[in-house]
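Quick log. Single chain, no ligands specified.
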Amino acid sequence: MTYTTTNFKTKNELKKALRRGDRITVEGDIGEDGTAYIVGPHSPHPQVWQVAATVADGVIVKILSARGARGAREVIATPIKRP
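-> predicted structure:
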């Protein structure tokens, strides 16, 4: 399982942080293609959400699917490019 270093209570909080341009790092298993299946919130709380995301150098680049489906490629949230 993969977690964000910030303990987001909902996937909506995660998506909003990514849209704001926050640098969100992850810990755990990342596939060879850079895909990570992230769950939250952290233990000991029950894990109630999951997302599939593209990760580069340990940082979320984009969220692919809020369901975590392996074949999904719809971009749900991407960070804001800041000058």
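The CA atoms of residues 2 and 28 lie 4 Å apart.
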